[in-house]
Specification:
Strand content: 15-25%
Radius of gyration: 13 Å
Number of helices: 5
CATH architecture: 3-Layer(aba) Sandwich
Order of helices and strands: EHEHEHEHEH
Number of strands: 5
Shape: globular
Structural class: alpha/beta
Strand order of the largest sheet: 2-1-3-4-5
Largest sheet: 5 strands, parallel
């Protein structure tokens, strides 16, 4: 089985340059339908009105962090099963533990390339 590259992917980061980088990496691995949000509240609003097969969110955002966004998503009956990949700049053990406890699907440490992103997405979506 292969991954459905036509699924809607939501990328969340308050840094526009990072959104552009992630979008380009997703394009390299053939994901075409990429939507973006610049903060957790906007991401939640989009998730509640749209349909996303995957969310890729930065950890370090204001005013709502990636962790808070993840907690909101997991607490929402309609959204809680959405695969969620967290991007973090530091591989602090407590961050990883907190994200796992909050129900993160996987995480990526910056900087990363298209290959790493593809591997993580394949792991999360459960298709080799």
């Amino acid at each position: 089985m292969s991954i459905d590259k036509s699924m809607n992917v939501l990328i969340v980061d308050d840094y526009r340059t990072m959104l552009r980088i992630i979008r380009n990496l997703l394009k390299q691995i053939e994901f075409q339908n990429v939507d973006e949000a610049t903060d957790g509240a906007e991401a939640l609003a989009k998730m509640r009105t749209g349909s996303y097969g995957l969310v890729i969110s930065d950890w370090n955002m204001q005013p709502m962090t990636g962790l808070q966004l993840l907690q909101e998503v997991r607490a929402d009956g309609k959204l809680k099963a959405t695969p969620f990949i967290m991007i973090t700049a530091e591989s602090k053990v407590e961050n990883v533990v907190a994200a796992k406890q909050a129900g993160v699907s996987n995480y990526i440490i910056k900087p990363f390339n298209a290959e790493t992103l593809r591997e993580k997405i394949e792991k999360v979506l459960g298709h080799a």
